[in-house]
Write the structure tokens for this entry.
Amino acid sequence: MTEAAFTPRVFSGIQPSGNLHLGNYLGALKRFAEAQDKGLETLYCMVDLHAVTVWQDPAALRHATRELAAGFIASGLDPARSILFNQSQVAEHTQMAWVFNCVTRMGWMQRMTQFKDKAGKNAQNASLGLFAYPALMAADILTYHATHVPVGEDQKQHLELTRDIAMKFNHDYGVDFFPVPEPVIEGTATRVMSLRDGASKMSKSDPSDMSRINLTDDADTIAKKIRKAKTDPAPLPSEIVGLADRPEARNLVNIYAALTDQSVDQVLRECGAMPFSAFKPRLADLAVEKLAPISAEMARLMQDVAEIDRILADGARRARALAAPILRQTYDIMGMVGAREV
Ligand code: AQP
């Protein structure tokens, strides 16, 4: 079997750790919806088992999982066309993760920069789950034989590890069982930066709420955050080279480009030579126009959490139907007695 023999199937996930933001929308959610709208088979997951690699307040986790599901739907994901589900409701993810814990080498994990960033100086006190996170991520993807994974730039290294795990399993057992999935990191917003610091990515865990636009922000808050975004004194250049060494200006132009589905060159043709006093209100109006309907729809959906739970339960049932046979075949390849009959 070659890679081409696998049916195209898209998988990705987002952690329900609160503060879903513009980076998650442009780098992930918007592109998830595009894959769905192309007619591809799509599975998208609220990865709650990843979220608990750092402690989560149980009530906050429950709320964030439902709010994330609302965010998916409000961003254009249709539960009838995409399988939307919660990771902990499909036990095959953790079962496959154990298999991959046994395939993955310690040295591979030790190279993961996100672990180093998240564990910080006190790595000895980080959870074993945080260290092993990329093996669970590989399980999320490979338990469905997913071939394409849309993610932001920050997940590139984890995706490369998933590919290494798939290849090592296939090699160790002499099979072509797992596809080697392709990262899909495309567009102008693969790395949306903080509004306060052009050198750090926009992130859920940034202590400053002014650093990000949350999908739950109202129109006034969105406009205020863009007005106060850090910039430099020069006007926008008319060519892309003029954005080199201007990370904050580059970030706002990238956001504008992604929200209007244009290239950076096109934006600079439209807005080149504009001072930020003119560009920021324009960007704020655009962001409000695109994001306010999402935030309103999320609020509406959150009025009926029973319906959200029903959608997630239905998604989990459909996801399990795909995952269970692949896990059984994996166990069988490994020589586990009973795997064929289970
Ligand atoms: N700033 C970003 N720009 C573009 N894409 C981004 N993503 C995250 N931040 C940006 C993409 O969103 C998806 C979901 O991310 P996640 O929740 O699984 O984890 P994360 O990457 O750790 O997200 P955060 O917001 O940065 O959370 P914290 O602060 O907890 O680390 C992924 O596809 C990711 O690439």
User: Anything to note?
Assistant: Residues 14-15, 17, 23-24, 27-28, 151-152, 154-155, 189-192, 201-205 surround adenosine-5'-tetraphosphate (CB under 6 Å). The first helix runs from residue 22 to 37. The chain has 13 helices and five strands.
